[in-house]
Specification:
Length: 447
Amino acid sequence: MTSTTEQLAGLSEQTTLLRFATAGSVDDGKSTLVGRLLHDSKSVLADQLEAVEHASRSRGQEAPDLALLTDGLRAEREQGITIDVAYRYFATARRRFILADTPGHVQYTRNMVTGASTAELTVVLVDARNGVVEQTRRHAAIAALLRVPHVVLAVNKMDLVEYAENVFAAIAEEFTAYATELGVPEVTAIPISALAGDNVVEPSARMDWYGGPTVLEHLETVPVSHDLASCHARFPVQYVIRPQTAEHPDYRGYAGQIAAGTFRVGERVTVLPSGRQSVIAGIDLLGVPVEAAWTPQSATLLLADDIDISRGDIIVPSGDAPATSQDVEATVCHVADQPLTVGQRVLLKHTTRTVKAIVKEIPSRLTLDDLSQHPEPGELVANDIGRVRVRTAEPLAMDSYAHSRRTGSFLLIDPADGTTLAAGMAGDAFAAPTAPNPQPDDEGWDF
């Protein structure tokens, strides 16, 4: 029988999945890069390529315009279909990919936040003729804010600067210095020409001075596996299973998807927010008993003691339990057209738990252009990023977003119509400004 250790080790031998997002200013060639990546990696169906070639010929172009591979979705947006982020799925022999193609305009900041929130890597595109511009800094800031562990700087249109090494080196140095200041842990700069195909999938013969990987090679080899043993294990309960049948008269299981870490039979755990403790008596995975389960598997935990547990509770190792609190300090990206204001009643959704809450303070709004803080703005409007202090009706077991992107994130929702107002990241962002304590609310939702 295969041991748990051998099973965990075997994960690294399987084909892994990389989620990555692309961002770039207007006319930087982002659509062409995505099209080139799909085309040269043989991820385009024959009928799709034929349609692109036909459309290109009708425009008088001899070579197929690979940007048209993504223009279909853009046309759908123009027709009024709501698609915040265009997702593309493709695979090579070495890895599977989910690509989130995000808009780069300043008015679509919320869209990039959506696409990059689950990404392990972000490709920031720069026009070699223009260098690092305001949009480039904004994209780097969002990647840092969302704790994206890997950032690729793709310096595009190198063919228009005669493949000059000094042009690439200057842009790479400026961007890397800025991203490092923001706290981005890793930056990989790659000179490319998406139109000509240089260093996208195949190495460029015109840039023999560059000895690094191509874009696809880096995507295939960048490490994305996590050390399961060092994660803060978290299990948000989605559903309580009680068949109460003759075959299973006393079965009580707690079903959900493991948000982080690993759980093992015999491990002592704590149920939050109640704080009650028990021991894992069994783990069912697809109806089969196992000794251990890990993220992102969906499993059912059975505990040795009968404890009042319901949807929204979180099961954690007793020695690694987060603090529970009704006060949430976080950075949020406002995604709704209606503003978020001080004193507003909202619903806060954290993992599988939704509670009433009040926006007590908006201490500052972040200016992404220069990372300055605008104090006490009073409200946040669409695409704004700012600090908030929220008071919840019930205590929540929330991690810092810096420690866990899954259990450190939340949504603020309009209780009237269910509209998502803001996406939040608990804990510090770039710098946590100090502000006076929130004033008590005396109009009904004072927790």
